[in-house]
């Protein structure tokens, strides 16, 4: 008798939680489980700003998928997903095909450049391990090159960060701590360095409490970060960016490094596979299945869930992806066991903390506003909690953050 | 009464030894001493291959000039020498002028590219602190970029080293130890990396004992280095190099990094100041003064001394520069004290050791051939001796190399 085959695409927060929950709940004779991921490691997307700035080594930000899955229960396929063929119930990989009875799409996000010219070609991203370490090395190379050249080019020491959202601000927090170290390493005058945050929206960290936003801006400005708020990037060039200043005026900012941290969208495989989506995100049913496809779950950054209170989508976060993974796993177990009733996903937002570097942060946790050391402590608790949920205390000990208060 | 003014140009091996010897021998009322150097630090030119490969941090390779000179006795001027005006007895700096009664020119070497097209523009050098850390970062950036790009460019992982002389081989020794670390750091397959040494001469390390040369080549080949001997680089391009293969055939080698380590010449200030010179090196008198100029000493890489035994110039080495500094200092003291008789410089070559990385080397010390750990030990003794001569035991403790055998 053939047992059903569960295929999980992606070993990010959502996919990995689904996998480790399923391996506990499903017997080997009950279902076959396949986990597909591009790399043989999982990385902490929410820690990438640290690896990108060079304040935390990228090996601290990733761990082998093998270290948290049970290979007797889960078959791991290292492969890149090209497309999902919903009709034939199979996944096309660059390296072959995988058929499924139940599918969990947890492929995560991609950068959204909103069609701004040159961003894809010339701006760096905080997207994955490869882009993080390349960005770290690019910045270091600019500093290393500065004194090497007889004719000094100060623009080498200018770093533009596009976006004052969560990723942008967390990256600025790390970067502004890293700059003095880089100045020392390469004998560069700190006053020659410029870090400019350009944000099209009228405020930093939209949606955050204004008092906390002011704290964040003041902290970063004290470390030398310049903010250009309400300023849209019109174009990115090999030399820097062009921004709109007022109605008609354009301004060029020369910069050796441009980082785009202003938006993500769902994975392009979503559209390529013919799912109805908004910027790569599919509005899923309360049970996390795709309307019309009872065998396909979409969770994490590729899913869209409406926050009924404000009638707007929840932002794509690790917190939600992991909670969805738990629900998806339980619903699949029910399906495998022939049950009809599905559990509905209800987000439980415990808090949001935005890091401002090693020992500073702002956030709201259980409805309480926090800044400074306390917020930074809570950030580390949250980071360690993600590890704990996937790999238990062992993974927290191996990869956790303990340099607190 | 005016006391004579001694000006030393350069705080390399020769200049710094001259300065520290003079500050011991000359009383403050006897002469004024001025030391001019481009940077406020001295760097160990003979250790730069380590900083360039990234196996030793560049701060281990330099120390503040201030830490070894007595500012009560020596005035330190941080400045870049443009020209020596021998007639008016003054030195033109980018930042002003300095007059002298006695001058010591110890400005060191510059890379010699023999007019090969593109080398100046596209090849990296192992020349000073700035170029060393830029080369280190450039190589690291190539590795960091490799996996970042969707379409892999294997040539990013090809490093061409032009020159199989002392610097080239020592750099290859460090680099071949560093490559496995870089592969691990950036998830790069070791087999994709190519390190190619291109040498126009018919042998590696010309002048060295053939048995030792064979040991060096075999060691480096075992670590993956490819040798192209008797092969001249015709051109360096942004994409790599073009070499002559046989009589008429040209071969392109694509490489993300080209390092030129095949020759040095004396400082260009020598020619600019109208001294009679061969590739920037002045054939000095036995007392180290310039023929026709009783007030100007030239020591180190800008001086040319003939080895009478083989009727060829001694190669420019730290060993000779330091020994010359001792003699120059004594001769200047004699001149200041109105004595006519000058000491002649006689090189005392104690040995030559060529490093092949952390714990391997080849060399001849006091006429004895050494390889492996023993040679490597002697290399560290030599490196520490240079520190001792300038700054005594204190400097050795601070900057010395102790990870021996």
TrEMBL record, chains A, B:
The keyword Flavoprotein applies. One of its GO terms (molecular function) is NAD(P)H dehydrogenase (quinone) activity. One of its GO terms (biological process) is aerobic electron transport chain. Residues 5-325 form the FAD/NAD(P)-binding domain. Its cofactor is FAD. Signal peptide: none annotated. Keywords: FAD, Flavoprotein, Oxidoreductase. The keyword Flavoprotein applies. Belongs to the NADH dehydrogenase family. This is FAD-dependent oxidoreductase. It comes from Neobacillus piezotolerans.
